Every structure is written in C-alpha cells, then in structure tokens.
Structure to design on (1142 residues):
C-alpha cells in the first residue's frame, strides 16, 4: 500500500516538473471588468507569454460560450495583457466564468483559476435584459428573462410572437430575435410570463433607422444671415425623446430643427455649410457651399398700392421690409388677373419699388400680385405680395360696326353689332342714330336705349340715305359709324349661285373689284327672311378676296390665302343667302350672291300631294316638293319604292328634282303600296306613302267572273261522267255491293245472311253469333264510319279504349251493341237500341227460337237486357247473363225500357215486345215504299248499266 | 320624434349633485375608452394583466361614513388620480413629445379637463368641507413606478396602465356615491317641502 502511494506522488511530481520544464508560466492576476450596457467583458492579466487560450463559461451550467486562442501583447507600460470579449448575451443574464492559460505552439501552461462575474439571477427578483435598447432595423438580439424564485417560467413573447427560449441557468432563460423589424411609436415589447399566465416582467426595444436627411440648401433672406433647409429622409421610427434626431449646423446646435421643422438659421453667412444629423443609431452629414449673392431669396414686397389709376394705365408702388434691398439690382414680376385671364410683366432696376402699368383696359377690375428676385445670379423668385385690386377708369366706346340691309326697294334696317366689354370701355347708356340724305338738309338724330341693335330706314325718294350710329357711355360718345343704303336687289333679279357648305361653313371667293376702295362686306341671312332678320355681316379690307362663313369662331382675315372664320350662328339645315358688296365712298354695290346650306340635313317633311292614277295596268305617281323651309338641303332627287310587308323595293331613282311624277308599268291585279322619298346630300326623308288596288275592266270581269267558272264546271261534269261510266263496276262494288237475301227454313228458310225482315224504318237488329262474349274481337272488321258515327251519336262510346269502338259482322255476325260498348250502362244501352233513327231497327215480329238456335250454337238473337248502372257492375251482369244463356238459350225479353227516350214514343207499338231485337246490318227493305228504295234503285241501275 | 317630445316636456332643474353624478358617469366612460385606446397601443396588456399594489388607497378615512363623508372620500381619491394623470401626461409628453396627436392623446386631455370639473363640482357640494379626508402628502410622479420589476420604459407602461385603472375605479365610485348623495338630498328637500 505504501508503495502505491509513493508511486502516485512520484508521478504527480513528474508531471508538474514536465510542465514547469517547458517554460510556460500560468497567467497571473486575471481580472474581469464588465461593461453591462455594451455587453462587453474586459480581461486583464499578467504573463510572459503572448499566446493564450481563453475559456468563458456560463457558470451555473458550465456551458462553454467561448473557447479561443488569442495573441495578446503586453502593455509596455503596465505589463498587462488585456482583451475584450463582446457577449451576445447581456452579461446580467447569468454568471460568467473565465480562465486563461498561456500557449507556446503545442505547449500550454496550467489554466488560471476561474474568475466569475455574477449574473442577476442570484437575487430573488424578476428581471429582463437588455433594457430599453435602441438598435438598427435588421439587427439580431438576445433577450433573457430571470424568473422569480417562486415562479415557473412559461414563455417569452417578442411583440405578439412567441419565441423559443433556451435555459441559461436555473432561473434564467433566453431568446434570440433575428432581423428585427422597425418598432411602433412606443417600441417593441418583450414579455416574460409564468406558467400561471401572469406577466413576470418585460422590457422594451426600440428598433429604427439612423437619420436619412438629405439635400441641404442655404440661402439668405436679408442679405446677411443664412437659412438652411433640408429634406427629411426615411422615417427613423424612433419617437421617444432620447432617440430623436439632433442637428448641428457648422458645429452649432440647431435647436429649432426637429422631426417636422427641417430648417436651421445662422446669423452670419458662411460660404460652407455642414449639417450633422445624429440619433442613437447613427449620424449623417450634409454639406452646401455658395456665395451670399448667389442665394438671395427676397421677402415679399409690402404696402403695395396704386398711386395713379387712369383708363389705360396705372402706377403701382410698394416698399421693402429690409433696407439692404434698396441697393440690390432686382427683377420684379407683376401678375395681372382680369376676367379669369392672367398676364405677367417683368420690370427690373435697383431696389425697385414702383412701376407704371401700361396697356390696361378701361373700366376693368385687375388684381395684381408682385414678387421679386435678385437680377444678377438669379436664385429664385421671392415671396409673393398679397393681391392688390385696381379698377381702371372708363373711356369713350369704340366705333360701332354698322351695316344696312334693304328688304325692299324703299325699306330697310340699319344694324350694328353690340360692343364687347373690351370695346365699350364702360357700361353703355345707349345709341344715337342720325340719318341724312343728299336731298334733305340737316340730320335727324334719334337716341336709342342700350338694348337696341337695329333701326328701321324708310326711303321716301330715290336718293341714297346715309345713317350714322354712335354708342354712348358715361365717358362720352364714340366715333360715329356711317353706312349708305345699298340698292335693293331681290334674289329673283340675280342669278343666284348654289353654295355648298364645307364642314358647317361657307367658303367664298370673288373676283377683285377695283372700285372697292373701302373694302368689302360679306352679308348673310336666312333665305326668304323678311323684316327683322338675323342679318350678319363682316367687313373685310379691300385686299381680301376670300372669306369663310363659319358657325364656330372668328379668326383673322388673310388676303388671297387663308379664309376668314367668323363667329356666327349658321344653323344646319337652314338655307342662307350670302352676298358680297364692294364698299365705296357712296352706297355699297352688290358684287355676287349665293344660296346654300352650311350643313345639309334630310328633309323634315315628305313630299306633299302624293297621288296616283291607274291607266290599265300602269300607275302614274305624282307629287309636289316640300316647302323650302322643310327641305333643309338642296333636293337632289326622289326615290320610289314598292312597299312590301317587311321591306321597301326600290323601283326608281329620279335624279332630276324637277321631275315630280313617275309611271309604274305592267302591274297585275293586286294591291300595291308606293313610297316616294325626296333626298338631299344628307339622305332621304321618311317618305310619303300611297296605296292602290288594281282593278279590271268590265269586259274582263265578265269573262273571268262568269264564263270561266262555267266552263270549268262543265268540263268537270263530263270528266266525272266518263270516269264513273268507265269504272262503274268498281264503283258498284265499292259503294253498292250485292246483298244476298236471307236464308230461312220454310218460310224462314232463306240462307243464312242478312235477315230479310221488314224493319221499322228506325230499327236495329243485333245478330249474336256466339253467346260467349268475345273480347278479342278477332275476325271482326269495322263498321263503315258513317254507320259508326250514327251509333256513337246516341251511345256513350269509350273512344279512349284500345279496343275497336264498334265491330260487327256483315251477313254473318253482328256484335252486340251493349257489349261493344261495355262501359255504357243499361239506360245508355237501351237508349242506344232505341235512339238510332238511321241504322237501328226494332223488330216487333216474333222470330223462331229454334231457327235461332239452329243458326247459332247456344246463342241466337239476344234481347237487350237491363244493363248495369255502374262501371264495375257489367262483369256481374255479364256473368249472370252468361249463366242465363247457358240455362235458357234463346230470346229473352227486355227487362225494362228506357221510357224517357225521345224515340220511345215513336215506337210504342214495338216497345215492350218480347221479340224486340236490334240489328246494325244493312237491311234491304222489301217494300218499294221504303224511302231508300227510289234512289237506291236508280243508283243501282245506273251502276249496273241498266236503264 | 322622441327627442322632440322630450324637448317639449319641461325638464326640472337638475341639482348640483345630479349634475356631478352625470359628469362622473361621463368621465367613467371616457376613462374606460382611454384604457381601451392604451391597450390598442400596448397590446400585451390585453393578454397579460399586470398585478401588484393599488396606486390610490385611502386608509385614513373612517369606516362606514355618511354619504357626505363618502363623497369627500371619493373626492380625495379623485384628487390623487388627478395628480397621477398629470404626472402621466407630463411623462408621456416628455418621452414622446407633442407630435403624436391621436385619439388617445385627445381623450387624455379631455379626461384631465373633466376630472378637474368633477373635482370642482364635488368640492362645491361639500360646502363645509364635510367628509374630507386629511390632505394626502404631496405625491411624487415616480411613485409606484419603481415597484415594477422591469426596464424604465416597460415599467412606465405598466404604471400608466395602473393609473388608468385607478381612474376607472374611482370615477365609477364617484358616480355611484354622487348618485346616492343626490338621492338623499332630493329626499330631504322633498321632506322639507312637505313640512
């Protein structure tokens, strides 16, 4: 045992010796100096080595958070090695322990003793770290929550997001948030809660951006100081006071600047400017440099006033609030607003403080604003003055535009155009019209109120009359405008040319007239107008030879080229008379006259008096053109249509508007409807319609109406006669077959076949072959329709039944009517037996039962029985009948009769007879007195070819 | 139509106590809305209700006092609430500046004004200073904030929440107490009129 202990001691001594022998001493005096806000841990130690291994642990769980080899030189003064570690985790979150050893390649010294800085998870309280941090957007950060001793940790939420926590120590938990987004106004809350869902503690982190300001510009307003402004950049998202951006301008605090006020002032101008914007997340610097004279931004002129206002001009004065402006060479811009129109005028001069506004209009309200700038090195316009109002004085009106229009040889009107605001120079009081002639001395002057724009002229003699018109306003009377009566020329006296409108206007041109010393007048008015017509005119200089009358607006005249457009009300679809007069010193002379439409439209009315006249198979259409007012365009022709039910068929297009009739030829006997439409270049009118029913002549009517049907009838009779004669055998067989006589033994021994009895004219005999009812009806064939119908008239037949309605035998078997119509009740059955007046015969005579039995096994004629009354009962009745038939084959009397039948009275003799039977066969009467006999015989003979 | 009918009917003059009670009810609704707005801004408060001590407690008043004394009691609490609200406004303006002018800030000012009116009204009701609690010691704005174990900003948020809770509580108490006070006064007046 002692030997083992000795060996162990020797080994340990050997190891220590080997370590000591490699020359690396253990670092000494390791000290830790934490910087909690910066999350850094500064290490300092003494050692002779420069390469060290470092290990940092979370003390409680001894989790290694750093294991690194660093080269650290000793401080030459203090001889200490120092190294700083930045912890991703707030150092308060848990205790940290550090140890260090020296290294020389593969040799290492012993670790220094562990040095520990305690965390805040030791006191019995809840904490959360870091507290109120401000970090840039996109940063990563680790938060830790230290829970109370008695609480159970549950979760940590970053904003609304639940994060995955890791445990650092017994009471400390951490989360790491990456790429953090910008915070709201009051920061992002990080909440730590317990298992009881109670909040333990929390912290706030402010995530934002560094300042983003840009565009620094400095200028002077008073030629001495400076005002610098910039644009706010990106929102920093930092709102709390500690995080707001601070500004300095050339190193001086700019206290007036904040998030909204982005300007800063300086008492003295400096050529170079630097603005520094700083917040906890960063700094930005903006620079600007300029001479003072290059950055003059003048203040607004003050005390603007008009010192002298005339009709056509005004003098404006103002003053400056900065004395230094008086020497500044400046340019001022004056803006005039009047009647929603504005104009600008520029003035310049040193220290400008008054200008004369020329070119104003009389009696107009002007609003003036003024702004100025430095003339040299113009930087920008200064502030604008407050608006100032000027009202110019009135002046005499301009001369009127006067024209005279004669509507007859001795009557006319003098017209003048109303003066615009620009030409009246003040509100007009009225007009003065004076009239003079060469033969009369003096002038007759009339004053008219301002609403008048015409005055009637009456020529008492043949001499020309000169009329002068002048406008009056408070400032005085305008220059008189004179016009001499032109000679009256009706349209009929002239060859009026057709004038085609172009895009709603008239384009005129005329040959120059050498005598037109005073120019020309173009006059236009609605054609056919009399009295106070909407006359319009345009005076043109003598150099003009073309003109365009337009419904849009007036432009300037141009000689030889561009047409003149004037503002008129050319109405589409109205014919205008356009005249050109040459002006002399004396009366105007008519040079040329046109008529035309500025824009043609379709006629508003159809042709009138549309009529037609038939001549044989021809029809002559004639009409009259509509009145000129309704034409609304030059009538270019007429179109004639034949109207059918759905459409119009064009039958003629008359391109000559003078032709107002048309002959439609070769019409057959029928009804016709014609539509006549007039058309202009714009299209056709709605059309006038006229209808005719073509009639024949009297001779034709006789021939067609009487002789032709007679002839056809005769032909048919002959053809039928021939046909029936040729086919008489077939007809006889088909319509009148040979009927064999009855066969009975003895007197009744006629062969089996139709009963040769003398029936009452309205009897019916039903011959029953088999007493057993045959529902299948095989071997039966239908009774001809006529006979069936006659029965159905009196019998209720189930026409919906799939079975044949009524099947009987001819000459052999006749089905019982009551069973052919199984649904009929007894009354119906009896009614059927008695009701027929055509084919049913009731026999009053007695027939031998034996002969019947001989003819039919167990059957024979069956008298009608009282039928059942309900649909379900016939079966029972049938079975009873069947049993009866089996027991008592032969005739049976009818049990009852339907006495309310109308026919019952007619056959009272046969009613109640025990041998009454019905038959539906054709029965050949023996007596020639029977009604069918004569015709039957004749027809039979005819068919047989007998005479 | 209803309003028109109401306007036609003569309305008896409301007493000062009745008006004060109505003002307290209105203020209570304002305070409730103010807390809602604050919780919209700080949404964690909707999920985690902070616990802790009450900020306004009046332990000096006698138990089971008369109604007038209760009015005085409530008034003292409202006065303390007013001080807290003023602190709150100062702190928030200092921290956030006056740039934020939303509904919360607008209603916060309204509550302050109406609370001042209510204090004035209730003071006028207590003509002889009856029921008044001994004046509270001057309050420091930071009172209560240090009790929250959190960062400064977070503690301030919790404290604001508590102040708003106190406002809701005491304005509710005021409306109820003033209503009772008004009812009693009204009854007394009717008895006097009958006599």
């Amino acid at each position: 045992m002692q030997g083992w202990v000795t060996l162990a001691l020797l080994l340990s001594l050997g190891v220590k010796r080997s370590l000591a022998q490699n020359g690396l001493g253990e670092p000494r005096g390791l000290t830790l100096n934490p910087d909690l806000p910066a999350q850094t841990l500064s290490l300092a130690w003494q050692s002779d080595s420069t390469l060290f291994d470092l290990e940092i642990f979370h003390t409680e769980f001894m989790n290694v958070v750093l294991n690194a080899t660093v080269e650290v030189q000793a401080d030459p003064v203090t001889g200490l090695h120092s190294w700083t570690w930045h912890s991703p985790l707030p150092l308060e979150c848990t205790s940290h322990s550090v140890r260090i050893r020296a290294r020389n390649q593969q040799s290492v010294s012993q670790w220094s003793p562990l040095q520990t800085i305690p965390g805040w998870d030791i006191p019995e309280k809840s904490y959360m770290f870091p507290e109120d941090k401000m970090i840039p957007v996109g940063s990563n950060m680790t938060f830790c929550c230290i829970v109370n001793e008695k609480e159970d940790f549950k979760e940590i939420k970053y904003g609304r997001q639940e994060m995955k926590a890791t445990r650092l120590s017994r009471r400390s938990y951490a989360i790491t948030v990456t790429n953090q987004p910008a915070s709201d106004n009051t920061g992002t809350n990080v909440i730590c809660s317990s298992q009881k869902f109670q909040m333990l503690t929390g912290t706030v982190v402010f995530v934002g951006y560094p300042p983003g300001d840009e565009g620094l510009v400095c200028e002077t307003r008073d030629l001495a100081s400076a005002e610098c402004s910039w644009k706010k950049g990106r929102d920093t998202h930092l709102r709390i006071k500690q995080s707001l951006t601070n500004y300095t301008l050339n190193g001086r605090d700019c206290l007036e600047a904040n998030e909204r006020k982005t300007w800063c002032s300086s008492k003295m101008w400096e050529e170079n400017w630097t603005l520094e914007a700083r917040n906890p997340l960063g700094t930005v610097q903006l620079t600007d440099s300029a001479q003072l004279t290059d950055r003059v931004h003048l203040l607004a002129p003050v005390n603007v006033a008009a010192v002298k206002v005339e009709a056509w001009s005004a003098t404006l004065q103002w003053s400056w609030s900065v004395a230094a402006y008086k020497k500044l060479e400046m340019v001022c811009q004056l803006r005039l607003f009047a009647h929603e129109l504005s104009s600008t005028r520029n003035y310049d001069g040193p220290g400008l403080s008054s200008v004369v506004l020329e070119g104003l209009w009389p009696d107009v309200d002007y609003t003036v604003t003024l702004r100025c700038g430095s003339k040299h090195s113009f930087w920008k316009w200064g502030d604008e003055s407050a608006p100032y109002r000027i009202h110019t004085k009135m002046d005499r009106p301009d001369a009127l535009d006067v024209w005279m229009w004669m509507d007859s040889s001795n009557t006319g009107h003098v017209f003048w155009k109303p003066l615009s605001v620009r030409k009246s120079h003040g509100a007009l009081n009225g007009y003065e019209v004076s009239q003079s002639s060469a033969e009369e001395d003096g002038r007759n002057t009339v004053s008219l109120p301002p609403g008048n724009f015409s005055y009637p002229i009456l020529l008492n003699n043949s001499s020309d009359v000169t009329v002068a018109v002048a406008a009056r306003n408070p400032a005085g009377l305008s220059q008189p405008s004179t016009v001499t009566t032109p000679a009256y020329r009706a349209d009929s006296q002239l060859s009026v040319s057709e004038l085609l409108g172009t895009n709603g206007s008239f384009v005129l041109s005329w040959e120059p007239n050498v005598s037109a010393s005073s120019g020309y007048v173009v006059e236009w008015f609605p054609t056919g107008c009399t009295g106070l017509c909407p006359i319009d005119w345009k005076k043109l200089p003598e150099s003009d030879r073309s003109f365009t009358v337009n419904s849009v607006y007036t432009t300037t005249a141009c000689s030889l080229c561009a047409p003149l457009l004037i503002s008129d009300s050319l109405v589409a679809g109205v014919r205008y008379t356009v005249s050109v007069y040459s002006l002399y010193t004396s009366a105007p002379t008519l040079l040329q006259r046109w008529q035309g439409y500025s824009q043609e439209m379709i006629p508003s009315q159809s042709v009138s008096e549309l009529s037609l006249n038939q001549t044989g198979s021809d029809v002559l259409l004639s009409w009259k053109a509509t009145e000129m007012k309704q034409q609304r365009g030059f009538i270019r022709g007429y179109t004639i249509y034949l109207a059918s039910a759905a459409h119009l068929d064009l039958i003629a297009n008359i391109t000559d508007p003078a032709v107002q009739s048309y002959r439609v030829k070769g019409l057959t006997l029928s009804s016709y409807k014609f539509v006549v439409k007039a058309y202009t270049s714009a299209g056709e009118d709605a059309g006038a319609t006229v209808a005719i029913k073509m009639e024949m002549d009297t001779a034709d009517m006789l021939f067609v109406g009487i002789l032709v049907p007679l002839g056809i009838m005769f032909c048919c009779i002959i053809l039928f006669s021939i046909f029936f004669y040729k086919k008489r055998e077939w007809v006889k067989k088909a319509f009148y077959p040979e009927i064999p006589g009855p066969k009975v033994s003895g007197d009744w021994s006629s062969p089996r076949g139709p009963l040769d009895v003398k029936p009452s004219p309205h009897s019916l005999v039903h011959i029953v072959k088999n007493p057993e009812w045959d529902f299948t009806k095989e071997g039966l064939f239908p009774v001809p329709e006529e006979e069936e119908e006659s029965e159905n008239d009196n019998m209720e037949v189930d026409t919906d039944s799939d079975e044949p309605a009524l099947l009987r035998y001819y000459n052999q078997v006749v089905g019982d009517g009551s069973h052919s119509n199984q649904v009929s009740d007894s009354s119906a059955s009896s009614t059927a037996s008695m009701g027929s007046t055509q084919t049913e015969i009731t026999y009053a005579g007695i027939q031998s039962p034996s002969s019947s039995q001989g003819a039919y096994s167990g059957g024979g004629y069956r008298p009608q029985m009282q039928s059942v009354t309900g649909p379900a009962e016939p079966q029972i009745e049938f079975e009873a009948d069947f049993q009866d038939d089996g027991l008592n084959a032969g005739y049976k009397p009818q049990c009852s009769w339907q006495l309310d039948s109308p026919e019952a009275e007619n056959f009272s003799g046969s009613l109640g007879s025990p041998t009454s039977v019905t038959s539906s066969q054709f029965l050949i009467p023996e007596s020639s007195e029977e009604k069918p006999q004569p015709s039957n015989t004749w027809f039979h003979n005819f068919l047989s070819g007998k005479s | 139509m209803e309003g028109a009918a109401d306007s036609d009917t003569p309305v008896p003059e409301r007493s000062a106590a009745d008006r004060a009670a109505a003002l307290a009810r209105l203020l209570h609704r304002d305070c409730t809305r103010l807390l809602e707005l604050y919780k919209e801004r700080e949404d964690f408060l909707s999920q985690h209700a902070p616990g802790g001590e009450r900020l306004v407690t009046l332990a000096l008043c006698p138990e089971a006092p008369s109604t007038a004394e209760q009015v005085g009691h409530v008034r003292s609490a409202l006065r303390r609430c007013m001080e807290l609200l003023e602190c709150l406004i100062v702190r928030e303006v200092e921290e956030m500046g006056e740039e934020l002018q939303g509904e919360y800030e607008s209603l916060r000012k309204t509550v302050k004004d109406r609370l001042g009116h209510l204090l004035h009204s209730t003071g006028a009701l207590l003509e002889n200073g009856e029921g008044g609690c001994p004046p509270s010691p001057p309050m420091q704005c930071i009172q209560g904030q240090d009790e929250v174990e959190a960062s400064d900003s977070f503690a301030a948020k919790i404290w604001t929440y508590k102040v708003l809770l106190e406002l809701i509580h005491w304005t509710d108490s005021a409306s109820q107490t003033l209503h009772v006070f008004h009812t009693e006064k009204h009854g007394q007046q009717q008895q006097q009129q009958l006599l």
